[in-house]
């Protein structure tokens, strides 16, 4: 079975705008997704990038145009100035790791629910009650928000190292088992085409 390593952060608006397209592509091709949430600011700094607040105004001006365009293409609502962003992503990422280990729910729905909480509903996903609501919505035990946090923290840190070693430098970032790399939700069609043998 082919697999896709999916490196992402709940802080990323582009990961939110991916919706559940990756899961649909995986089903189409019989592929397994390895969900690897990570510390995105640390990934930027480790791979020559900058935090949004430190980027040149030209880059931020482009981002202000590009995000609404991508939201329109995806058919998803997007609040460009969410109330709590950037928040501490670790609690929501730990919950994703715990849910992935536990199983029993819909991972794509969970990740999208967390993203929607930030980028549409103005919620703070560093708060346990918000994370629990997202877990419940996706069919997981809400208690996973507090389960095996040390193990999740270790996995979270390990995912960053794996991402750097795999060649990732942003999010969302997709790596196939043949080491083909795709950066950004706007490359999901290319990932689909590659898995179909068309690229």
Description:
This protein is of the alpha+beta class. The protein has a single domain (3-195), classed as 3-Layer(aba) Sandwich (Glutaredoxin). Helices cover 51% and strands 10% of the residues. The protein is built from 9 helices and 4 strands; from the N terminus they run E-H-H-E-H-H-H-H-H-H-E-E-H. The chain has helices at residues 13-17, 21-29, 40-46, 57-74, 90-102, 107-119, 128-137, 149-166, 188-195; strands spanning 3-8, 32-37, 173-176, 181-183. A 4-stranded mixed beta sheet has the order 2-1-3-4. A hairpin with a 4-residue loop joins strand 3 (173-176) and strand 4. Helix 5 packs antiparallel against helix 6 (107-119), helix 5 (90-102) packs across helix 8 (149-166) and helix 6 (107-119) crosses helix 7. It starts with a strand and ends with a helix. The model has no long low-confidence stretch (mean pLDDT 96).
Give the topology.
Elements: E1 3-8, H1 13-17, H2 21-29, E2 32-37, H3 40-46, H4 57-74, H5 90-102, H6 107-119, H7 128-137, H8 149-166, E3 173-176, E4 181-183, H9 188-195
Parallel strand pairs: 1-2
Antiparallel strand pairs: 1-3, 3-4
Helix pairs in contact: 2-9, 5-6, 5-8, 6-7
